[in-house]
Cytochrome P450
Amino acid sequence: MVLLLSIVVLAAVFLLVSSKHHRKCDSGANPLPPGPPWQHLPRLGNLLYRCPTIASLADVLQHLHAAYGPVVSLWAAGNKPAIFIASRDAAYRTLVRAGATFAHRPPSWPFGLNGHGINSTPYGSRWSLLRRNLGSHLAAADVASALQSSLDKLVPSLESEADDGVVAPSEMFRAAVFSFFASLCFGEGVAEDVLWKLRGLHTEILSLVVELGAFHLMPPFLEVACYLPKCWRFSKAQKRHRVTVMALISARQQPNREEVGAGRRRCYVDTLLELGLPDEEMVSLCWEFMNAAAKTTSTALEWIMARLVIHQDKQQKLWKDIAGTRFNENYMADDGRRSPFLEAVVLEALRLHPPAHYLLAHTTDKDVYLDGYVIPKGSVVNYGLADMGRDAASWTSPDEFLPERFLEGGEGYGLSVTAGCSNGNKTIRMMPFGSGRRACPGADVALTVLKSFVENLVTRFEWKPVGDGDGAVDMEEKPGLVTEMKTPLRTCLLVRQHG
Ligand code: HEM
């Protein structure tokens, strides 16, 4: 009770002190990008009381962009303007052309699980070292063997479920993708019960995260207040996570490496140990690796398979294309000889269903002038990427699932999904992995995983809708840091007979 009262008093003092400063920021010579005339609550701005959740933020932004244009400003955390960019062209000019200026992140709490991640590290030499380290680990990793062992578990478990007719594969996808990334992070051979525990901890911790806080749209005092009721559970879950991850890290330090997870192939933890990082930083970087990689990739996989269940003709075409390219009784892991239509299916699904609808928050190290407006130094800059992939000015029939557009001669052919644009094209066309200096460093490996999983799943099984008609698969979205299917996929699985 005393704690609660102190917070209320502190908050009131904060509001009074900051109101003057806030008005000053709002009335510079160069106007901010346009925004609604909503009343500003000092320190709280005008965003939070209109859109207190990610779901409401998406709806509100859609109306604001229609009314004020593709770049709008709101007021979020205290005196900072929150600029929302929905234009592909403005995204290109800021993230790519002014890459260094927009490569900064708003400051984060320097403690907790996210305290030392690449994402929260300020743009500079430490960020560059950690990012290069992750990039070279992923480029050199033995992805094919790790994929093989994940698929060796996934395919039989789907086969056993297929006997019962209707299958809900989401959980199996999540487990298989998590196990793949865990072997890249902690080494091969992590015991099933440890994987299960770690995955449970990720789910538990993520369920406690204040999502708008993750986008830097909340004043710190309010974020703290939101965490207070759950801080006990949060800190206990973080401690259990730390103990589990430290055990896996110690296993890599054993000379004979016979411990759990200490197989011979080099893993991410080995690279962190070589950098001589303190325990706290290694735990944070392992959390980031698994967190950034697993849920995004397994969610993308579920959206892709949902599309293939709906569009039986595309599934059939894909199966034939894969069979024409290569067929082998053993599960197929990546070897670079893939069907072109497979790549097209994955890209088309990412265009329509990017797992993240917003980039992580960016900021700038100086005032930037954009189309007659100013983005002041230190503003929180957010990019809505989901609508960019469905922009009718860039894509024909943008809401239709047409993988053919990514084949030779199609409008999306040659597009670099990791850069966001086609060769010579000075605009973003879609950016499920972001664009510019902070773009996702795991994009290539995520694409390899998706292609390999889809290839195997379509080769082994026929994915049929449950019931008839358009409503057989519910494609409604569940907004969040990662946008999942609101109703998890259900499908009838038929094991393909080869022979
Ligand atoms: C389908 C899967 C994935 C999607 C859709 C995805 C998407 C994204 C997006 C949108 C960003 C933010 C970019 C920005 O703020 O400008 C990002 C950042 C990041 N991603 Fe991914 N990602 C995926 C998989 C992965 C994987 C597999 C890894 C690592 C193994 C990874 C590691 C990271 C890291 C470390 C960052 C922060 C980069 C920085 O701040 O410099 N992601 N990702």
